[in-house]
Amino acid sequence: MLDTAISPELIPAGASGEAEQRSEDTVGPYELQDFFLYHVLRFGNRPSKVAWLAHDAWGDRNRGPWPDLIPVDRRSEYPMEQIEYWLRVFLKRFFQTSQFKRSAMPNGPKVGSGGSLSPRGDWRAPSDGNADIWLAELRDGLAHD
Length: 145
Fold this sequence. Notes:
6 helices
């Protein structure tokens, strides 16, 4: 863990005032991360189903209507390979490396119907857990023929 790069938000902005790094470069597109989190927490979906749902939602930007508030140039599209990659990142970070942070965290607000991530609220997870079973299900559930 000592060779892990520090979080981008902890690096001061450069001379131009712009951040030198973007968190999305590390964790993946926020829209996908939010999608993964919602479907795992709210519905308890297995990783392969979350990947399938994400591909159905984000696989083709021209399929289905978009809200008018999202400009055309911000309408994202992700092939299954990218979804799988970022879902693996999410699973490792959420189930393996991030739970220890919640064990020392004060109560958090419950926002929305997705549940609370407060250790004293809805979410119960061991601080020393790992993501192996989740990653194996994603691999086996999306086995490419």
